[in-house]
Amino acid sequence: MPDDPAFLVPSYFLGIQLGTLLGDREIRPVTIANYLQGLVSLMRHGGGDPVALEGIRSAQQHYVRLARRVPKFKVTRIRSLMENGGFGYILQRVTDCQRDANALPRYSALRFRVLQAAAILVLMANKPARTGDVAHWRLGHELTRDANDVWSLRWTQMKTGHETGAGELWPETCQVLDRLLLQDKPARLAQLVYTQLRGKNWLTHHPSPPADTWPSMLVCEILGAPLHDLRTLSADYIRRYDPANAPGVIQSHLGHRSTRAGEEYRALAEGDAAAESWRSLRGTLEAIRRSKA
DNA sequence: TATCACGGACGATGCGCGAG
DNA sequence: CTCGCGCATCGTCCGTGATA
Predict the structure, then answer these.
(1) Distance in angstroms, CA of A259 to C1' of C5?
(2) A74 CB and strand C closer than 7 A
(3) Among A96, A98, A216, A279, which is least packed, fewest CB within 10 Å?
(4) CA angle, residues A102, A108, A113, in degrees to nearest 5
(5) E-strand spans in chain A?
(6) Model pLDDT for residues A149-179, shown as the tens digit of each residue
């Protein structure tokens, strides 16, 4: 951009110039749109010229539209997770972790870490939460265990401030959680150990939680995809399994306040779910035809 | 006319990750 | 570990069109 100060006057032209400069540096359109949005905010709250503000806004809109045409990075990651077997693959890795743990020295830090990874993975298959939330759950508060060896999960989401939960967790999830809880103690002590650790963090077994991003880093090491991708993966599963009711189920499963938020969690093309929907519809029609014949 | 679903616009904030 | 950049998600507002 020329050094002429006239070019620094906020306008549609300046917005596009900035965008072009950033685009040349391989910055993605969605980011350019966010930067311009920051400028819009500054001008709005700082009493900027309304005409100039509209100009920058238009430029920002241009990059928002551009961003919609560019595939997200996560799409490639999730497709490769799907190709590997999706949640089946993830549960396989849980089994691998458990086996690895058996081969490691008892009470070793590495063994504990592998058990932590298994617990996070199986819990994410059961209920995919945000990494920051996962890091903060405490035994006896968000994550509870009853005398029948059944674990339950309920928490207030940090991002939205709304409560969500999984209710009673799957039996296989409970087993893996018990394993992390017990380390190498006998199973009959489970409830006792649980009582002793009440109030402590479920992952560290200390009062202090790990870093917000730590659960995601651990998942990334094992799966090659960050924890947040599992939310998209599960939304895609729900769409394939039951396309008609998917929006409501996704909203509940991912803890959104509206069904619209779920649309952001989409790695598969619309056509995939539509094809699946059509396939099952065709199956239903075929069954009706047979029963009439 | 009231109501509702839907979707775009907008603003705010969370997450991943590499640098220091 | 902390910080900041780049990227992604989510809630709210509001206009539009369909429907009863």
Answers:
(1) 31
(2) yes
(3) A279
(4) 75
(5) 143-145, 151-156, 163-168
(6) 999 988 777 666 667 778 888 898 999 999 9
